[in-house]
């Protein structure tokens, strides 16, 4: 994770993205949702200043509905 006043190196950005990906996969798994194509987008990690995008990719209709239900359950009225 970046700290105030410090710019992350490319390696730090990639490591941070890998950690975020693992955190997301673990949270989804705990909620009973698996995104089979969840990964880091390789194209966004190229070059000296990678963006490191997380690719949620594709899932079937059942998984999409399960994900929507988990998200809805996590949103309270005060957060809307």
Low-confidence stretches: none
Helix-strand makeup class: mainly alpha
Radius of gyration: 15 Å
| Arithmetic mean pLDDT | 88
Describe the structure.
The chain has 80 residues and is mainly alpha-helical. Helices cover 44% and strands 5% of the residues. A two-stranded antiparallel ribbon has the order 1-2. The longest helix is centred in the first third of the chain and has 21 residues, at 10-30.
Summarize the structure in short:
The protein is mostly helical and 80 residues long. The protein has helices at 10-30, 61-74; strands at 39-40, 54-55.
What tags apply to this protein structure?
80 residues, mainly alpha, two-stranded antiparallel sheet, 2 helices, 2 strands, elongated
Sequence-ordered SSE layout with sheet pairings:
Blueprint lengths: L9 H21 L8 E2 L13 E2 L5 H14 L6
Antiparallel strand pairs: 1-2
